User: What shape does this take?
Amino acid sequence: MLNFTFYAPTLFDFGKDTAGDVGALVKRFGGSRVLVVTGGGSVKKNGAFQAATASLDGAGIPWQELAGVQPNPRSGKVYEGIGLVRGEGLDFILAIGGGSAIDTAKAIGMGAGYSGDFWDFFTGKAPIVRTLPVGTVLTIAAAGSEGSDSCVITQEKGNLKWGCPKTDVIRPKFSILDPSYTCTLPPYQTASGAVDMIAHILERYFSNTPDVALTDRLAEALVKTVLDAAPKALADPDDYAARADLMWTGMLAHNNSVGVGREQDWASHQMEHELSAFYDCAHGAGLAVVMPAWMEYVIGHDPMRFAQFASRVFGCEMDFAHPEDTGRAGIARLRETFRSWGMPVSFAQIGAKAEDIPAMVAHRREKPGAFPFGGFVKIGPDDMEAILRIAAEG
Ligand code: NZQ
Ligand code: ZN
Assistant: This one.
């Protein structure tokens, strides 16, 4: 295990009716005038918005709304939010929704107190040293931004979907996690969220670091919980127990509890960001297409690790003489699981085209330090092209 520091100071308020605590929590973390960030309206249909803003009203905290954040959130809403915060003298940002609303809130928080362009934090031109406090009311178990040190925004100039450098500074101050709100999710979003959390776990699981038994076991438990809970939530959207398991797993999958002390990979995420930049697909759906392809491409690097995953998570019989066969059986089971949840597993199913692959590789080059990427296996341009070709077939 490698040395590590782990600082994850978000307060989690979990369970039914917890949105009523928003006002008190904003005050506790120093907020007095709030920017409320929302998406396309789902949070008004399921009551999350009404509960949270009633709590702000009850606490005597004025607020203004920035509505209309799109999935795969764009820079335009960030600039708009920064303008509102400055113009109205707001000092706290509350996201109500999923990763897109939360990441927009985080980016506004970074940019509001900075004289330059907030995108400077994404290009590395400026370090992230402070931010306005952010709170969240989560309504989809998926991206894990409610507890994470990351933020992903698409800069409209150049259509660049990039994450900012990871930093504890941007972790939310608090996150309200009421699983009831996730009962209104369409099946496709429930499944995309489940895939995303599995990907967050596996990006950490496939590591070259030895002696990480505890985090291996924790990661396997999280994946198994998703495999158990996701079909239940898909069969019965009101299954509170399954929704609760998914919501807490999604947080644990990405606040780095299972990533400490080990090298991490993140190659599948890097490639998926090109897919969602090109085709505006749901992030989890893009991962369902690209991650099994990445696994097939890199399995030869450490067949035993893939065999361990296959046997411990899917119960595949371990063939010690041919661990790669066991590992491949696990990859097939994972892809089949995604398919059974209604997720795409090939380019065609997300409207992607194999002939765009060279353009995606070229687009990736615009990112500072674009190649190689990936901590488990270093991925160069030719590797990326080969993996995307496997993903195209599914
Ligand atoms: O826009 P509204 O109307 O709110 O609808 C949303 C949206 O269409 C809908 N939705 C959310 N909660 C709902 C609901 N519909 C019905 N009932 C509910 N309770 O779901 C759709 C997707 O919402 P979004 O916020 O985009 O989902 P998600 O949480 O999956 O976030 C995806 C974004 O997060 C980024 C992704 O790349 C993508 O841009 N990520 C952020 C990370 C982070 N900051 O740590 C890590 C991830 O790896 C990921 O890259
Ligand atoms: Zn993700």
The pocket of 5,6-dihydroxy-NADP (ligand 1) is lined by residues 39-43, 46, 71-73, 97-101, 103, 139-140, 142-145, 148, 150-152, 181-182, 184-185, 189, 193, 196, 254, 269, 283 (CB under 6 Å). The two ends are 35 Å apart (CA to CA). Residues 186-393 form a domain with the Dehydroquinate synthase-like, alpha domain fold (CATH 1.20.1090.10). The first strand starts at residue 11 and ends at 14.
